[in-house]
Amino acid sequence: MAHAATTHSHSHEAHESHESLKVLGFWIFIITDILIFGTLFACYAVLHTHTNNGPGAKELFEMKGVIIETFILLTSSFTSGLAMLAMHKKNVKQLIAWLIVTALLGAAFIGMEVTEFVKMVNEGHTIASNAFLSSFFTLVGTHGLHVSIGLVWMIALMIQVSRRGVTEVTTRKLTNLGLYWHFLDVIWIFVFTVVYLMGVM
């Protein structure tokens, strides 16, 4: 009996250290991501004036759409927070409902971003046009790609939670997803300020 208890406590400890390793891994991922975005922002800061006599930020950016995009993403951050609250209450239905709302807002954000990109490309302003557009598409596109990855991750977790409920493992995964989503929100505020606001000023 004592042996079984020891084995159980060992396996529990191993599980806990495995879980904390995964949390650590997630934070390392976030830090490397901050470095990637930091590099892209630095490139943009250097290259945004290199328009090769083409139109610059003032001529190309439509602030109305960007403000709507920003509002949508900030709202999705709020709804992901509500999903986390439902998770702590172990209310699976509410949790999935808020995740669906968050995912729909995220998808709307991506839809608007893709539309903006397509419109620019159709007008002849492509990633290859000049250094300004290369740095713009790379920075904003990398953020958009991260949001898309977040959406896939969110859908996968919704399926997992609907099957398994709120467990220790799904709680960790959802917490990481929540942090990731807020992180993308913070990055977008920088994009909005540095690229769009300062661009049209």
Automatic annotation (TrEMBL):
It comes from the Bacteria. The chain crosses the membrane at residues 24-47, 67-88, 95-112, 132-159, 179-199. It is found in: Cell membrane. It holds the Pfam family COX3. It is a multi-pass membrane protein. Signal peptide: none annotated. Residues 24-200 form the Heme-copper oxidase subunit III family profile domain. Keywords: Cell membrane, Electron transport, Membrane, Oxidoreductase, Transmembrane, Transmembrane helix, Transport. CDD domains: Ubiquinol_oxidase_III. InterPro entries: Cyt_c/ubiquinol_Oxase_su3, Cyt_c_oxidase-like_su3, Cyt_c_oxidase_su3-like_sf, Cyt_c_oxidase_su3_a-hlx, Cyt_c_ubiqinol_oxidase_su3, Ubiquinol_oxase_su3_dom. GO terms for molecular function: oxidoreductase activity. Gene3D superfamilies: Cytochrome c oxidase, subunit III, four-helix bundle (1.20.120.80). Cytochrome bo(3) ubiquinol terminal oxidase is the component of the aerobic respiratory chain of E.coli that predominates when cells are grown at high aeration. Has proton pump activity across the membrane in addition to electron transfer, pumping 2 protons/electron. Belongs to the cytochrome c oxidase subunit 3 family. Heterooctamer of two A chains, two B chains, two C chains and two D chains. PANTHER family: CYTOCHROME BO(3) UBIQUINOL OXIDASE SUBUNIT 3, CYTOCHROME C OXIDASE SUBUNIT III. This is Cytochrome bo(3) ubiquinol oxidase subunit 3.
